[in-house]
Design brief:
Order of helices and strands: EEEHEHEEEHEHHHEHEHEHEHHH
Number of helices: 12
CATH topology: TIM Barrel
Number of domains: 1
Oligomer: single chain
Radius of gyration: 20 Å
Structural class: alpha/beta
Helix content: 25-40%
CATH architecture: Alpha-Beta Barrel
Bound molecules: flavin mononucleotide
Largest sheet: 8 strands, parallel, barrel
């Protein structure tokens, strides 16, 4: 069998060696937005994991746009310096062809949340560092959190400029790919969804107007980057909520992103309003992502409960999407890439330093991997 999962993929100006991406995951371990030694050790594992690409976590384009006080930011020279150090370390011992990207984001009304392991309630308190949140409309994310302040036109333009500035910083820091976080109920998605945007100025109202902010951000980021990095966006294929966005809105957004010069989309879903998600099974976004790929004709990745190598292989081999992203599977097993290659008969050896654990070279390999 020739594995399709382990074939290279061109994403705009970059080539990734296989179709496996490590999905962005907040690690809540930054210091005023600056990446720390934690990020070095975390990303070094991913660089040697056998995945073709890892995308660093949601990174606030301004201080108020961080999800929690421990989230990464890219709004200051200190943040840029710290990120540059981390990227250089993380890229030093990668497997051949590995690429590293970053997701830039503004959390809007979902900012100012506690560390997940401290989450007694839904909101930070002023005593432990809460800040005023901002959103298209002054509608809180559920009843337990303070209402955001409605953004003024000038503030909206300021955030668009902040996205462009962060993108420039990401390029200077040496990243290969920049992804806008336009899903999961964060600011860009808050503008797109009628559930969170009830404005009646140029930034809200019709579907066209609700897409203005997302596309203005995309255009600003495109203009701020040189064409040497791949550009993409994580977008929602459904809000899982009555009156919310559906897959055709996603097709439209993906097509417009392509017209802006974006290279790919990552199709996800949910989280614009609290709760309300149906029970989700393996590969729960694949079908909608396949529809987006077909209709919008853009390189498409999907994510969500993909953990088995054979499942990942089936998704790629079927042609449904071009790339799969895995999040929790790589936290669980940061060697997922080589282990998958072994299952699928692909030639992706572990890094040379680790080659004595290759199946065949170490009789206990099978027992160890099955945790016998
Ligand atoms: C610890 C953790 C942090 C996450 N942080 C982000 C993030 O920063 N940006 C994002 O788009 N998704 C984030 N997600 C969602 C994942 O990227 C992914 O979409 C989701 O976990 C479903 O994929 P999985 O079933 O492979 O875990 C996070 C998920 C986890 C488990």
């Amino acid at each position: 069998m020739t594995s399709k999962l382990f074939t290279p993929l061109q994403i705009g100006p970059i080539e990734v060696p296989n179709r496996i991406a490590i999905s962005p995951m907040c690690m809540y371990s930054a210091d005023d937005g600056s990446a720390t030694d934690f990020h070095i050790q975390h990303l070094c594992r991913f660089g040697m994991s056998g995945a073709g690409l890892a995308v660093m976590e949601a990174t606030g384009v301004d201080q108020t746009g961080r999800i929690s006080p421990g989230c990464l930011g890219l709004y200051s020279d200190d943040n840029e310096k710290a990120l540059t150090r981390v990227v250089a370390s993380a890229k030093k011992y990668n497997m051949p062809g590995f690429k590293l990207g970053i997701q830039i984001s503004h959390a809007g009304r979902k900012a100012s949340t506690p560390y997940p392991w401290d989450r007694a309630g839904a909101a930070l308190t002023p005593e432990n560092g809460a800040w005023q949140t901002f959103a298209p409309s002054a509608i809180p994310f559920g009843n337990d959190v303070p209402a955001p302040k409605e953004l003024t036109d000038a503030e909206i333009r300021g955030i668009i400029a902040a996205f462009a500035e962060s993108a420039k910083r990401a390029v200077r820091a040496g990243l290969d790919l920049i992804e806008l976080h336009a899903a999961h109920g964060y600011l860009i998605h808050q503008f797109q969804s009628p559930l969170s945007n009830t404005r009646n100025d140029e930034w809200g109202g019709s579907a066209d107007k609700r897409l203005r902010f997302p596309l203005a951000v995309a255009q600003a980021v495109r203009a701020a980057t040189s064409g040497t990095v791949a550009l993409g966006a994580r977008i929602n294929s459904t809000d899982f909520a009555e009156g919310g966005l559906g897959v055709e809105d996603c097709v439209r957004f993906a097509s417009e992103l392509k017209a802006c010069g974006f290279d790919y989309v990552c199709v996800s879903s949910g989280n614009i309003v609290p709760g309300g998600r149906p029970a989700l099974g393996p590969g729960f976004n694949v079908e909608r992502a396949a529809h987006v790929k077909k209709e919008a004709g853009i390189v498409t990745r999907t994510v969500g409960y993909i953990a088995g190598p054979k499942h990942a292989e089936e998704i790629i081999a079927s042609g449904a999407v071009d790339q799969v992203a895995l999040a929790r599977a790589f936290l669980d097993d940061s060697n997922w890439g080589w282990h998958a290659a072994e299952v699928l008969g692909a030639n992706v050896p572990p890094p040379p330093q680790y080659q004595r654990i290759k199946a065949g070279a170490w009789p206990a390999a099978k027992e160890s991997r099955a945790m016998a």
